[in-house]
Amino acid sequence: MAALLLRRFAGLVVTLLLTSAAIFAALDVLPGDPAAVMLGTAARPDTLAALRAEMGLDRPAPLRYAAWLGGAVTGHLGTSTTYGVPVAGLVADRLAVTLPLALVALALAVGAALPLGVAAAARRGGALDAAAAVFAQGTTAVPGFWIGLLLVLLFAVRLGWMPAGGFPGWAGGATPALRALLLPAIALALPQAGVLTRVARGAMLDALGEDFIRTARAKGLRPRTVLWRHALRNALPAILTVLGLQLSFLVAGAVLVETVFALPGLGRLAVQAFAQRDAVVVQDVVLLLAAFVILVNFAVDLAGLALDPRQRDAA
Fold first, then answer.
1. Distance of CA 61 to the CA centre of its chain
2. Are 283 and 27 contacting, i.e. CB atoms less than 8 angstroms apart?
3. Which spans are transmembrane here (predicted)?
4. Whether domain 88-314 has CATH 1.10.3720.10
5. What is the DSSP string of 224-235?
6. What is the spatial distance between Cα 121 and Cα 125, in angstroms, rounded to a whole number?
7. Any idea what DSSP says for residue 79?
8. Highest-confidence range of 77-81, 111-115, 282-286, by mean pLDDT?
C-alpha cells in the first residue's frame, strides 16, 4: 500500500510540474509587455528597461519559470501589473467568495441528487424513477447562468426575497454573506445535481444487481439496510469520482454565474486580468485552478482506493 501511495504521489508531482510548465509556456508567448502596460505607451525607453529588469522580464525564460514556480510554492505570487498589489492578497480575497460558493453549491447538489438517485434505483420503472429522469434531463439541459437569470427575476426582482447580486463580505457576518451566495449556489448546483442523479442511479442499479445484495436479502435484512448500508457503499467510488469532477468544475468554471450575480470571485478575477493583459495574475490564477483540480482528483483517487479494495488489487 505504501508503494502504491508513493507512486500516486510521484504522479501528482509530475502532473503539477508539467501543468505549470504548460501554463507558463502558453502565457509567455502571448503578445504584450507587462512593463509597457504598467507605464503606458509614453514611457521612456530607459524607464521601461529599468522596470523590465526589476520585474525579471529581461532574464531567460527558464530562469523566469523557475523563479515563478518557486514563488508559487512559497506563496510569493508576485505583484499585479494592473492593481499594483500582491497577487496573493487578490487571490485570497477572491477565494473567500468562490470557495464557499462552490461548497454550498456542492452541498445542495449532493443533498438533492443522492437521495433522488438512490430512491429512483430502488423503485426502478416507477413514477419516482420517471420523475428523477425528467429532473436530470431538464437540469442538465439548461445552462447555469440562465438558471441564475431566472432566479434573479423571480426571487430578487418580483418577490424581493433575495439580493439580486453583489457580495457584502464576511465582515458583516455569515448570514448576509451566505444569503448573497444562495441564489448563485442554486444556479450552479442544479445542473450538477442532474448529472449526479443519473450517476447515482446508475451506480446503485449496478450495485443492486450484485450477488452480495441477493445474499443480504436472502438473510432477511431490511430493504432500507440493504439499500443504504450495502448497495450505497458499493456505489460510492463511482459517485465520489463524479463529485470530485463537480467540485473542480464549481471552483474553476463558475465564471458566468459569478458574472450574472456580480460576485467578486476567482473566475471574474481571471477574466478581468486577461482582458487587462495582467500576465502575472493570469498565470497565478490559472495555476491555482489547475492545481486545485489536480489535487481534488488525487484526493478522490485516494478515497476510491480506501473504499474499494478491488482498485487496490488492480493497481
1. 30
2. yes
3. 99-122, 134-157, 177-196, 238-265, 285-307
4. yes
5. HHIIIIIIHHHH
6. 9
7. B
8. 111-115
Cell of 82: 494592473
What is the C-alpha separation between 174 and 180, in angstroms, rounded?
10
Q: Which residues contact 62 (CB under 8 A, 6 or more apart)?
A: none
Neighbour count for residue 6 (Cβ, 10 Å): 10
CB 253 within 8 A of CB 290: no
Can you tell me whether residue 129 is helix, strand or coil? helix
**Mapping DSSP to helix (H, G, I), strand (E, B) and coil, where does residue 86 land?**
strand
d(CA 265, CA 244): 20
Interatomic CA distance for residues 204 and 238, integer angstroms: 10
Global pTM reads: 0.79
Residue 123 to residue 129: CA distance in whole angstroms? 6
Residue ranges covered by each domain of the chain? 2-74, 88-314
CA distance 227 to 5: 31
**In the prediction, which pLDDT does 108 show?**
92
The per-residue pLDDT for 310 is 58
